[in-house]
Every structure is written in C-alpha cells, then in structure tokens.
Amino acid sequence: MTRTMVAAIDQGTTSTRCLIVGADGAVLGAHQLEHAQHYPRPGWVEHDALEIWERTQQVVEGALKAANARGAEIAAIGITNQRETTLVWDRRTGKPYHPAIVWQDTRTGALCRELMADAGQDRFRARTGLPIATYFSGPKLRWLLDNVEGLREDAEAGHALFGNIDTWLIWNLTGGVEGGSHVTDPTNASRTLLMDLGRRAWDDELLAAHRIPAGMMPSIRPSSDPGFYGQTRADGVFGHRIPVCADLGDQQAALFGQACFADGDAKNTYGTGCFLLLNTGTKIVASAHGLLTTVAYQIGDDAARYALEGSVAISGALIQWLRDNLGLIATAGEVEQLAASVEDNGGMYLVPAFSGLYAPHWRADARGVMVGLTRFIDKRHIARAALEATAYQSLEVLEAMRKDSGCRLSALRVDGGMVVNELLMQFQADMLSVPVIRPEIAETTSMGAAFAAGLAVGVWESESALSSMWREAKRWEPSMDSELRERLFAGWEKAVSRTLDWI
Predict the structure, then answer these.
(1) Can you give the residue range of the structural domain that contains 127?
(2) Partners of residue 305 on adjacent β-strands
C-alpha cells in the first residue's frame, strides 16, 4: 500500500534537519547534521552555503532511509530556514559570490548608522514593521554589493541572485542552474527591510535607499502555495518529481507548528536565539515598545496573518559559549545539573549582548557583561545566571507585547532545544507568571513546514485538522513569590544598563 508522507527541510543556524511526517502527524523518520560556523573577524559570522546544500542532501537521504520511504511516497516538501542570513550567487554557475552573512553578524553597523542619519532608527518602520538594525538582510545585501568585486556589475546585468537560505535551497531543489525557481515567501521577505508589509511586495523606494538592483530579488509567493514553487528533479536527492510548495521563516514555522492560529496565540522558541511571536490575525499592529511587526504566514490566496515578534540574539548560544569558549561544561546538557546545584545566582547576572541587544532595546552599541561578581561566585552560579538570562530576556519581550497589543497571555507554548531543561522552564513560568506548555513534538519548526506543505496539496484540509494533532506533553505552573520575582527582575534591568554604550 502506498503511504502518503510530507518532507520538511529545517535549515537552522547551526544544523540542518529533515523530517518525514505521516498523514496522522507522526514523525516517521528524521536526520540532522551540523555545519561549520565561521568567525573571520570580531562581530562577523558566516556560513558556507555550498556546505549547507550538501548537508541538506545528506539529511534528506538519511530521513528517507530512517522512514523506510521512497521519494514517490512524498506528497510535498516544505522548507523552513534561519531568517535574515543573506546570500548572493551566480545564476549561471550556482556558486556563491561570498559566504552567507549570518543573521547574528554585525559588520553592517556603520551602514545602518548611515541609513539612520536623517530619520533615525525607525526610518522604514511604518512601511516594513522593522527598525534599522544589523539583524536584517537588506543592509547585508548592500554590504555585499559594495564590497565583493564585480558583484554589483553582475547584479545589474541580471546574473546575480539574492536570497535568504530558503531561496537558496528552493532554487537548488527545483533545478538550480537548469531553471531553478527563484522564490521566497512573505515571512522571509518581511525580514529584509525591503518589503512593504501591507502589500507584501518589494518596495522600489526601499530598494533604492539600499542601492539594490530589483532584478536580484526573488518573487514573493504564499507560505503554503497550492500552485507550487516548482518540483524536484527526478534525478535529484528525492529521486522523484515532488512539489516544493511551502516556505516559512523558522520562527513563523514554529508558530504554525504550535497550531497558534487564533488571534492572541503565542509561542516562544528557545534555540540559538530566542523568539517570541504573538499572532495578531489579519491586523498589522505597529509596535511602540521595540518589537517587530512581521508576517506570520499566508495560506494560498487567503489574507495574510501578521504577528508581533520579540527577537533575542543569544539564548542557546550562551550555553554553547560556556562549553566552547569558557570550558565550564563538556556538553550542553550538563548546564542544568550544574545550575541546579546552587539555590540561586548568588547575586550575579550574565547579559549576553554579544551582538548587541535585540528586542526590545535594539542597541547595537551594547556588549555582554557579567556583573555582581564576588569571591563567593563560582561556575555553578555562572551556569545558573546563563539559564536565567534567557528567561529574563523573554520576560522583557512579553512585557513589550502586553503594552503593544493589550493582550495578556493565559499561557505560553514553548519549543526548541532548550525546552528539555526543567530548571529553565520552571524559572520561565515563574518570571512570566503564566503556565509554560511544551508539546509532545518539541521540534515544531520542522512540523510547521510539514503542515504548510501538506495543507497545500490536501494531505490536511484545514487549520482545524492541524490543531487536532497538537498535544500537550508537559506544563510548568508559576510558583515564585511576586516580591522575589520583582527583585530579581530589577537586578536584571540594572545589569542590562551596564551593557550600553560600550561600542
């Protein structure tokens, strides 16, 4: 009997994963591989796009094998990706002009200050929903055009293609130099500083302000597209022609995979960074408190859904820093045991402003600090402060969301690699004063891409069908005294103030 399955390719900041998902929502097979992180200068972060494409093919093969599946059984393919990571390649050869510039990279600081000179950080916010910041793709693309020899000439001649990693993967999956589709979706396009949020189209004035030729830009298609972006090649990694028909930035995919379809639903993803999204429905809610207004998703010809987002640059990456840079732990999993061996943080705070501060501060001049140090502090307190930093940053974002939307959450759905950390999840519930809920399938980013792809081809008929497959695995209830909560958070705010004006 032929099985019906959907494949999701989840290309993240540190690794690439493929999931094979059955029509009942069960994960039938998965495979994941890491790729190298390159730091050529302080503040610079790069990826090898050819390595990412190679890893993508490898994880597809591994997931199909794990599911004992053939390409002919795959009904559709969905893509989800690290957002804002910027790449330009030659349509004639398929070779990148330069390593991909990762979303964490801060090399565009001077360019962003130039863009802000006349009208400030919110110069483009009314049109894009975003402040000017090193985070977004537009300034990165401008840097490439200004600094890579011959690129601007090739771009103006129509040879150079721009894309975030979703566009790169779709182009390669659907043929590459032999007619690959050069497309993106509104969730990714809304992270560039180049798209008009209401029209969901590239804006000529924004392109001109960044000095970017319009011919480089991919077409913007729905996040779940019954018309398909294209099909895989029969001689490609799937060995069959399969529709590629869903594309979502990773955080929007997690919102979709968490079945946050109603106005006011919210999720927080704890990965390399930390990203809290609130579904605002078809309404574009402008932020006055440092949040981003972004596209949540668009299904076919339906009206687009929007979201408020708080983006935190460093959360899981801070645990990696403890492991790789300081050597305090041998594996990331050890941090919980180390942190739990002390009752509290000993009065110290660790603010990981390694790439400046993102939401709600948006201060590129900030750098990381450890404060409140005494001879009493040891590596256990540092480990605990590192975990607590993620919860404090999430609380800052949630408070900004309450002010912007007027919505008070009744619960927060969580996902990502850090949600297995019981100490962090309990501390998060305590600081937010709402229950924190983990689903049965924690990798909701991949599931969101799978759901959107299956929806496009009729594997699932509606959002309500998807909601019925979401199940709660565990819930943490807040238990901290309000006076202690306020005192701890006041200490965090004081610590944050010490990071500012460093650069």
Answers:
(1) 5-251
(2) 297
15, β-bridge pairs:
34
Is residue 190 predicted with pLDDT exceeding 90?
A: yes
DSSP, collapsed to helix, strand or coil, labels residue 424 as helix
Six token digits for residue 260: 């946050």
CATH of residue 245's domain is 3.30.420.40
| Residue 460 near residue 466 (C-beta atoms within 8 A) | yes
> Does 48 map to a domain?
yes
Q: Is residue 32 part of a domain?
A: yes
Backbone torsions φ then ψ of 475, nearest 5 degrees: -135, 135
Kindly report whether the peptide bond that precedes residue 360 is cis, defined as omega within 30 degrees of 0.
yes
Predicted pLDDT at 384: 96
Total domains in the chain come to: 1
Give the residue among 172, 9, 18 at the shortest CA–CA distance from 87: 172
Backbone angles phi, psi at 270, to 5 degrees: -110, 95
The dihedral through the CA atoms of 68, 71, 75, 79 has a sign that is: positive
What phi and psi values does residue 353 have, to the nearest 5 degrees?
-85, 50
What HEC string does 18-39 produce? EEEEECCCCEEEEEEEECCCEC
363 inside domain: no
pLDDT higher than 80, residue 3: no
Termini Cα distance of the chain:
63
- pTM, whole model, 2 decimals? 0.87
Query: Is there a domain that residue 243 lies in?
Result: yes
User: Across all residues in the chain, what is the average pLDDT?
Assistant: 93
